[in-house]
Amino acid sequence: MKLIVGLGNPGRKYEDTRHNIGFMVAAKTAALISASPSKERFEGDFAEGSSGGEKLLILCPHTFMNASGQSVRKAFDFYKMQTEDVLIICDDLNLDTGRLRLRARGSAGGQNGLKDIIRHLDGEGFPRLRVGIGRPPDGWTVTDYVLGKFPKSDHELIESSATRAAYAAIDWATKGIGPAMNQYNALAESGSNKQQKKKKNGKSQIAAADPTDAASTERSD
């Protein structure tokens, strides 16, 4: 049994914002495994499904980003899980847009959602999948940037990245952290190089950052 947690902020106000990429990936993961209809549980949206003989639990906390840990802890305790069986999916402003970084453990790196989960799970020993959203351009505050919506010009890139991240989450659950890291971190590097070429050609690039109670600061592990 594995628990996949997508981080974000609840409510229409925050739908499709950069900080909610974790929610987007969780929704795609649920669709790919034909999970049960979501229901309110553990202070969040919760669904169940399976893939490759592995039962998958999907949770999107409704406690706002900076209090994500209390929702995660409730599911963690109810199912009597181990930290290595919990995958947290969140945005990362220090990764190029569309790039993925899967790690078996690590610090919060300034991401307040991860920081709260570390506090509630009493340690850093849980896997995390970071989805790059880039840096805010000059003149933008981090809060405004992460809580801003993706521009239409970036929708195709974000759609592709979120889908790839969903497959990465499923492969983490069914194949293990090592094989998933080898496959998706390498793919992410390739995608990052393509994005850098686009940037040089003057095409738009996404960025995301951090805020207050509805946002958080992030650094890569």
From TrEMBL:
<dbReference type="InterPro" id="IPR036416">
    <property type="entry name" value="Pept_tRNA_hydro_sf"/>
</dbReference>
<comment type="function">
    <text>Catalyzes the release of premature peptidyl moieties from peptidyl-tRNA molecules trapped in stalled 50S ribosomal subunits, and thus maintains levels of free tRNAs and 50S ribosomes.</text>
</comment>
<dbReference type="GO" id="GO:0005737">
    <property type="term" value="C:cytoplasm"/>
</dbReference>
<protein>
    <recommendedName>
        <fullName>Peptidyl-tRNA hydrolase</fullName>
        <ecNumber>3.1.1.29</ecNumber>
    </recommendedName>
</protein>
<feature type="site" description="Stabilizes the basic form of H active site to accept a proton">
    <location>
        <position position="91"/>
    </location>
</feature>
<comment type="subunit">
    <text>Monomer.</text>
</comment>
<comment type="function">
    <text>Hydrolyzes ribosome-free peptidyl-tRNAs (with 1 or more amino acids incorporated), which drop off the ribosome during protein synthesis, or as a result of ribosome stalling.</text>
</comment>
<keyword id="KW-0963">Cytoplasm</keyword>
<dbReference type="GO" id="GO:0006515">
    <property type="term" value="P:protein quality control for misfolded or incompletely synthesized proteins"/>
</dbReference>
<feature type="site" description="Discriminates between blocked and unblocked aminoacyl-tRNA">
    <location>
        <position position="9"/>
    </location>
</feature>
<feature type="binding site">
    <location>
        <position position="112"/>
    </location>
    <ligand>
        <name>tRNA</name>
    </ligand>
</feature>
<dbReference type="GO" id="GO:0000049">
    <property type="term" value="F:tRNA binding"/>
</dbReference>
<dbReference type="InterPro" id="IPR001328">
    <property type="entry name" value="Pept_tRNA_hydro"/>
</dbReference>
<dbReference type="Pfam" id="PF01195">
    <property type="entry name" value="Pept_tRNA_hydro"/>
</dbReference>
<dbReference type="GO" id="GO:0072344">
    <property type="term" value="P:rescue of stalled ribosome"/>
</dbReference>
<feature type="binding site">
    <location>
        <position position="14"/>
    </location>
    <ligand>
        <name>tRNA</name>
    </ligand>
</feature>
<feature type="binding site">
    <location>
        <position position="64"/>
    </location>
    <ligand>
        <name>tRNA</name>
    </ligand>
</feature>
<comment type="similarity">
    <text>Belongs to the PTH family.</text>
</comment>
<keyword id="KW-0378">Hydrolase</keyword>
<keyword id="KW-0820">tRNA-binding</keyword>
<feature type="region of interest" description="Disordered">
    <location>
        <begin position="188"/>
        <end position="221"/>
    </location>
</feature>
<dbReference type="GO" id="GO:0004045">
    <property type="term" value="F:peptidyl-tRNA hydrolase activity"/>
</dbReference>
<keyword id="KW-0694">RNA-binding</keyword>
<feature type="active site" description="Proton acceptor">
    <location>
        <position position="19"/>
    </location>
</feature>
<feature type="binding site">
    <location>
        <position position="66"/>
    </location>
    <ligand>
        <name>tRNA</name>
    </ligand>
</feature>
